[in-house]
Amino acid sequence: MSTDPMTIAAVTEVYEQFVLRFRNRDVEGVVALYAAQENPICIGTGRDEVRAGGEQIRVQFIRDFAQSRGAQWREKWFSVSAEGPVAWLAAEGVWEIETATGAHLEAPTRLTIVLRHLGSQWRIVQSHTSLPALGQREGESFPKRV
Fold first, then answer.
1. Is residue 142 over pLDDT 90?
2. Contact 87, 114 (CB under 8 A)
3. Fewest Cβ atoms nearer than 10 Å: which of 14, 91, 97, 135?
4. How far apart, in whole angstroms, are the C-alpha atoms of residue 57 and residue 29?
């Protein structure tokens, strides 16, 4: 399957805007990238970070920004594919985070985003952020502990 260059560019722009708006701590800007009318889902790394709908997603990003002073995304790679009005993006990188207490974290992160073409715009209908399992060495399929 070959994804057309215009779709790749448009989906990449949404991804780049997501990273930029997150870095700039722009709650409303990040939330605006989600398809409010599609009851979007946002899954984060915490056990309680499963959010459905624009208001719950807003609550999550408010919490993220309240518990941090800043974040930078150091991308390793990303990939875009699409079929009709649906596209998906996978990315891997490192979030460099300064917590609200001043601690500095480097979190190896994986991100997947599913988008839908609505009118003239691509909007996020699902996002999922994960961290590689602690205690799982390279070459092993399962962690030693969970």
1. no
2. yes
3. 135
4. 12
Q: Are 65 and 27 in contact (CB under 8 A)?
A: yes
Q: Which helix (H) or strand (E) holds 50?
A: strand 50-52
Three-state SS string over 5-32 comes to HHHHHHHHHHHHHHHHHHHCCCHHHHHC
CA angle at residue 15 from 10 to 19, to 5 degrees?
A: 145
pTM above 0.90, yes or no: yes
From the CA atom positions of the chain, what is the Rg in Å? 16
CA nearest neighbour of 85 among 112, 59, 119: 119
Which residue ranges make up each domain of the chain?
A: 5-130
- How would residue 145 be classed by pLDDT, with cut points 50, 70 and 90? confident
Domain 5-130: CATH architecture, name and number where available: Roll (3.10)
